[in-house]
Amino acid sequence: MDPKTENSSKGLTPGVSLEKLHKMAEELTLPGRFLLRVLDAALESVTNLLAVVLGSHLARRHFHLMLSALVLFGPVLSSWASKYSIFANSHNYLYRANMVWRGYEVSQDVLILCLCCLLLVEELSVFGPHIVQARPLQGSPGAPLRLVFLLCVALLSVWMLLLLCLLAHFPKFPSQQLGGALGYLGWKGLYQGWYRLTPSWCSPGLPGDGL
């Protein structure tokens, strides 16, 4: 056999095998790429919808009214709450021991949940429009930013569910209402008071300032 022919055949064989491997790899990754595109499109659609809802003027200005109505009328749901629900079992919660309260008791659970919900909605109302109305030079926000936004919305939903279960299964009037009122006053003092002051008062500014 001619040495030149033998060398040329040996040189072509690796090239052909690499091309076949490359095509096989593309065929194997094609379903994965399609699935990623579908998930990315679903993530973009869901986050855009949630951003429009939470970034609306109605949600930002009137969410505290809905939360106040929930705190006021949530205990009414106790008559429909099931006694056999997992939320109705007091052993699933931590209670204070060897402590005696005097005077009006303030529900710290309702206070923290109301304050956290109000703070998170205030931040999401600025975070949301930044996702929907991205600047042309910056491009569309990536999946990590959208996932963070979606996790924040999920956290808000969990807090709202915990508040509803607490009011429905363990109604305590007026301690829960006092806790909700103090949570509202704390949110009002931050976003309507301190955050609107000048930097000389060590104010961090309102959410979205400078964007």
From TrEMBL:
InterPro entries: FIT (IPR019388). It is found in: Endoplasmic reticulum membrane. The keyword Transmembrane helix applies. The chain crosses the membrane at residues 65-86, 106-127, 147-170. GO terms for cellular component: endoplasmic reticulum membrane. One of its GO terms (molecular function) is coenzyme A diphosphatase activity. One of its GO terms (biological process) is lipid storage. It is a multi-pass membrane protein. The keyword Signal does not apply. Keywords: Endoplasmic reticulum, Membrane, Transmembrane, Transmembrane helix. PANTHER family: ACYL-COENZYME A DIPHOSPHATASE FITM2, FAT STORAGE-INDUCING TRANSMEMBRANE PROTEIN 1. This is Putative fat storage-inducing transmembrane protein 1.
